[in-house]
């Protein structure tokens, strides 16, 4: 059990020791959110452009 606690402690402190890695992960997540939203908007724009004008 000592080994498990040691590994847990190391896992919890790694992001605190390396804030750049934590920031990179947040930037990556934000990029994925922006890409997903851009895809949604592109799909909506495509649907609107297919609606026939009266």
Query: Which percent range fits the helix content?
Result: over 70%
Terminal CA distance: 73 Å
Query: Mind describing the biggest β-sheet?
Result: none
Rg value: 22 Å
Put the structure in a nutshell.
By secondary structure, the chain is an all-alpha fold. It has helices at residues 2-17, 19-50.
In words, what does this structure look like?
This protein is mainly alpha-helical. The protein is 89% helix and 0% strand.
Layout: helices, strands, pairs:
Layout: H1 2-17, H2 19-50
What would the keywords be for this entry?
54 residues, mainly alpha, 2 helices, rod-shaped
């Amino acid at each position: 059990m000592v080994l498990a606690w040691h590994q847990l402690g190391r896992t919890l402190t790694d992001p605190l020791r390396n804030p750049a890695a934590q920031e990179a992960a947040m930037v990556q997540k934000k990029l994925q959110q922006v890409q997903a939203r851009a895809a949604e908007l592109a799909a909506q724009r495509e649907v609107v452009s297919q609606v026939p004008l009266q």
